[in-house]
Specification:
Layout (H helix, E strand, L loop, with lengths): L2 H12 L6 H10 L10 H6 L9 H5 L6 H14 L5 H22 L10 E2 L9 E2 L10 H21 L9 H14 L7
Antiparallel strand pairs: 1-2
Bound molecules: zinc ion (ZN).
The site of zinc ion (ZN) has 5 residues, from helix 6.
Length: 191
């Protein structure tokens, strides 16, 4: 699935638990982290028509979709989290990362039909390649529906709890966004 879908998945997942702003961001980003290996798309597109194209995306996409990198991400999450949230954040980051892998197995078939198997035990073994025969395409209606539903949940959470993913960038922008949401959809259940 697309990084946007993964991001929203991570956000909604993080909001299922009692976390602080920083730890919420860590758990959310852990759900996007595997796609860092997709950044090779930029040099690849830029050099596509050159004499020496860099095939970094073709070569490395999905190379970080594995257990070893998941453990690295969990360790980083543990290190970055505040003292009383360390174990919780590390563990949730590990789960969040796996939600990403699960979503890719469900619906990341390429336009040419390639399934992008997930080399779960790479780089130590290539024995385990995760795929699902029912996998749908990257642009399939399922992904669009899932993304819209996650977006609606994100709005609902923002209106109700008073914060949105914007808190990762700017608290001011986040407050303005929540205020606008609450004004537009007046909060009748305000306690
Ligand atoms: Zn992915």
């Amino acid at each position: 699935m697309s990084p946007v879908t993964h991001f929203l998945t991570g956000w909604v997942f993080a909001n299922c638990f009692r976390l602080q702003r920083k730890e919420r961001a860590i758990v959310t980003l852990a759900c996007v982290a595997p796609d860092v290996d997709g950044l090779g798309i930029i040099p690849e597109l830029l050099t596509r028509n050159s004499a020496h194209p860099l095939m970094w995306f073709s070569l490395y996409h999905h190379s970080l979709h594995n257990l070893a990198f998941a453990l690295v991400v969990a360790a980083v999450a543990f290190a970055l989290a505040a003292q009383e949230y360390k174990w919780k954040t590390g563990f949730l980051a590990l789960l969040s990362f796996h939600l990403h892998l699960f979503e890719d197995v469900l619906g990341s078939r390429g336009p040419e039909g390639y399934q992008w198997p997930i080399p779960y035990l790479a780089p130590f073994s290539s024995a385990l390649q995760l795929t699902w025969h029912g996998q749908w395409g990257l642009n399939a209606w399922q992904n669009i529906t899932i993304t819209i539903v996650l977006l609606l949940i994100t709005f609902w959470l923002a209106r109700r709890r008073g914060f949105s993913p914007l808190e990762m960038v700017s608290l001011r922008a986040d407050h303005a966004f929540v205020a606008a949401l609450r004004q537009r959809f007046s909060l009748r259940t305000a306690a």
